[in-house]
Amino acid sequence: MTTSTSSSGTENGTSLRSPLLLPPPPPPPPSKIPESESESAQEKLLIDDMLQRYCGEFGPWQLRHFVLTSLAWALEGFHTMVMIFADREPDWTCLGPGCDPQAKNVCGFEPGSWTWIGGADSSIVSQWGLVCENKYKVGLVQAMFFCGCMIGAGVFGHLSDSKLGRKGSLTIVCILNAIFGCSTAFSPNYLTYLLLRVLTGFSTGGVGLCAFVLATEPVGPTKRGAAGMSTFYFFSTGIVILSGIAYCFRSWHTLYIASSIPSILFVVFVLPFLPESPRWYLVRGKVNEAMKLMRSIAKYNGKHLPNGVVLALDEEESNKTNGKQDYKEELESKEAITGSIIDVIKSPVTRIRLFLAVVINFLCSVVYYGLSLNVVNLDTNIYFNVALNAVAEMPAFLITALLLDRFGRKPLAIGTIWFSGTFCLLGALVRGGGIWNTVRMVCGILGIFGMAGTYNLLFIYTTELFPTVVRNAALGCATQAAQMGAILAPFVVVLGGTLPFTVFAACGIVGGVFGYYLPETLNKPMYDTLTGMEEGEGEGEGV
């Protein structure tokens, strides 16, 4: 009876309320809840999207991180350009008969008739007598250093993507640089010196690469290009500082120690305060570490990252946006699109681009490193000249960045290469002696000014010439070609006289001619696949 009465009362109550207030609709069954609503409590974003929406693209956190990390570029400048001072041929003076004060070198002088100014330990040339028939050994040790750089860039580039990470790899190369650099100072003979310079090159080859990636990966997409181009300022600044260090420490033994100590200071006082890249954390499956770092970025920048926002890889973000289970299954079963340098060569579009990129990078590297090393042949103040060359590079970086999107990649590349080649040609035509030494020095400075702008541009230009699937392979070939040019440059410098300027002028002019056959990439899409590029650019057009 009680149940019946209660039921009747409920029905009457419902009947009385129905004209005034409709009862709430019954909740839908769990299987009918839209997927987007079920995921509203957790928003999945790519790192770039999270930086733009919540953390800030280039706030105080990124500025501090970028500056501290990019200090490693100055260390690379130390270990690379120290050879200019340590391997130079010092001045000499006559002591008696059998020596000609007007001679250009000491070849043919009687033993004991002359001596090195500054003592035997002022450079390796005076230490081990690397003159006349042994002069080639100076170019050899410099070339072998760049061979080490070429190998180290490949090894530590792989390690920074895998187990060691960006920070771990940067730590290792800086420690090795400090060890090998200090050990070089105690080389008892030429062969030991050669071996240690190769090892220093091996570790130096990974410094700039690891520092560049670690510094730019936490930067937002719209600021990353400008940040990446700014790293070269630290390299040039390092060369300027090295000139001052070399001026204070005239012995090559103490110079190597003084130029290696900053690497130790960087490892002890800077690296402990640098975090790992959030992108490396994410691709290695360490999502919690990546999210913790992103929250730190947002907090330091005065932003707020909501609790419901999490990082995702691009595949995961695509699944969330599409909201379809069958799409996820399709994505998991879809084979990855891969490519190799063989595919670059097979494609009619990228084949000629690769050839041109390799040749241009090789020629420009000969000019850039050749002009940097050739200061020993200018008969001017070597410390002032090296510092002036480095300072001349800085406005080139700025001008290139400002004109890049106005005139396009191709005209700017050709213009800067020919600018450098023209002044190298003028330097070859100018005779040495007196005021003409200063004129040749100015020609060299303007030549390196133009080539520094080209170097800054080629990295971006080469990246845009190839689709994503083979971009790293093609860029790797261009980088290897540039290292080969750096290996050749010391042998050109050893020729002395006007020959180096002649070779640099020829390389610059020919490089500009090859650049004429490259396509313009300004406002062009960055293709993902070779098929897409062939369809977009036209398979039969060649470039």
TrEMBL record:
Entry-linked InterPro entries: MFS_dom, MFS_sugar_transport-like, MFS_trans_sf, Sugar_transporter_CS
Domain Major facilitator superfamily (MFS) profile: 65-523
Membrane topology: Multi-pass membrane protein
Keyword Transmembrane helix: yes
Keyword Transmembrane helix: yes
Any Pfam family matching the protein: Sugar_tr
Keywords assigned by UniProt, alphabetized: Membrane, Transmembrane, Transmembrane helix, Transport
A GO MF term: transmembrane transporter activity
Transmembrane annotation, as ranges: 139-157, 169-188, 194-214, 226-247, 253-274, 354-376, 382-404, 411-433, 439-461, 499-518
Localization in the cell: Membrane
UniProt region (Disordered), positions on chain: 1-40
Gene3D superfamilies: MFS general substrate transporter like domains
Low complexity compositional bias, start-end: 1-20
Gene Ontology CC terms: membrane
Composition-biased stretches (Pro residues): 21-32
Highest taxon listed in the record's lineage: Eukaryota
PANTHER family with a match to the protein in the record: SOLUTE CARRIER FAMILY 22 MEMBER (PTHR24064)
Descriptive protein name: Major facilitator superfamily (MFS) profile domain-containing protein
Species: Dipteronia dyeriana
Taxonomic placement: Eukaryota, Viridiplantae, Streptophyta, Embryophyta, Tracheophyta
